[in-house]
Amino acid sequence: MKRFLLFSVVCALVVLTAGCKGYDNVDVSAFGAKAPDIPLIDVRTADEYAEGHIPGAVNVDWMSEGFIEKVKGLIPENSPVAVYCRTGRRSSEAAGKLAKAGYSVTNLTGGYEAWTEAEGKVSKYEIESFCTKSGDQLRITLIKHGTLAIDYAGLSIQVDPVSQYLSSGDYAAEFSKADVILITHEHGDHLDAKAVEALCGDNTKIYLNQSSADKLGAGEVLGNGDVRDLSREGHEIVLEAVPAYNITPGHERFHPKGNGNGYVLTFDGFRVYVAGDTEDIPEMADLKDVDVAFLPVNQPYTMTVDQCVAAATAFKPKVLIPYHFSNTDLSALPGLLPGTEVRIRNMQ
């Protein structure tokens, strides 16, 4: 009788705990079905994340100070969110805290190990996540050099897609069809016809400069100052082409004035500046309210570190991510821009 009562109490506690934890534990199949549609957080360490993670996941280390506040800075409160770690232990703890903070949480049972054992897709690209003024998540996948992928409100944008910068070398294997493809200029490290072909669907729009259009034989040409409305499903999304060129004497031939484009993308008021191949040109002073800027730093083709500092000082982005920097030493850059958050990533 005593054993029966003890067993009953244990069962009751298990049921009570399962009902009060405030989040759902799901297997790989169910997690994989949910992951593409809701924000995904890898709560492992940065080193674990860099070795491989579930595609689309941002990294917020559960063991880091201010975990909940970091998540709130990336994902609006009361949103659905999916979490995982290596085996499920850390993510279970994180899921409980996130649920108490108001999130609707799904946790992957068995974690990343279960995912890889089931042969789920794996990525090594870093992802930067931001919360726009409308409370939606903006994700920017950092591929390499000048190549980016941007996702917002169901809109997929590929910037200067180049096959050689992918882990597999094949866009069809790693990315779905793009809604929009942006090409800054015609050089081979920015324009790759194979990548464009792999990313093009029936309704894909390609925006590019004239020289790229001549080379590719497709797309809509944008000149500096041209604007296009990319809005969809109640979200205001605007694209503007801006100047990108060299000004150092003797370097003008690399990127002549009036040829290439940079792009400013505004997502419900959140502004992203992708500079393209350029130096610290006077027009940068006209940029306003830039939340995130991608600036190239590799002379003689683009900017020196000092020029990057001058450029960032001119328009004061909240976040600066140097890209297209090859072997340039960027270690001093954060200290030279105390008013801007500088994030050094693997964008050589």
In short:
The chain folds into two domains: 20-117, 3-Layer(aba) Sandwich (Oxidized Rhodanese, domain 1); 126-342, Ribonuclease Z/Hydroxyacylglutathione hydrolase-like (Metallo-beta-lactamase, Chain A, 4-Layer Sandwich). Helices cover 26% and strands 28% of the residues.
List keywords for this structure.
348 residues; alpha/beta; Oxidized Rhodanese, domain 1; Metallo-beta-lactamase, Chain A; 2 domains; seven-stranded mixed sheet; 11 helices; globular; disordered N terminus
- Under CATH, the homologous superfamily of the largest domain reads Ribonuclease Z/Hydroxyacylglutathione hydrolase-like
How are the strands ordered across the major sheet? 6-7-8-9-10-11-12
Low-confidence stretches: 1-19
Number of domains: 2
Please work out how many helical segments DSSP would assign.
11
Largest sheet: 7 strands, mixed
Q: What would the principal axes of the Cα set say about the shape?
A: globular
Tell me the β content.
Answer: 25-35%
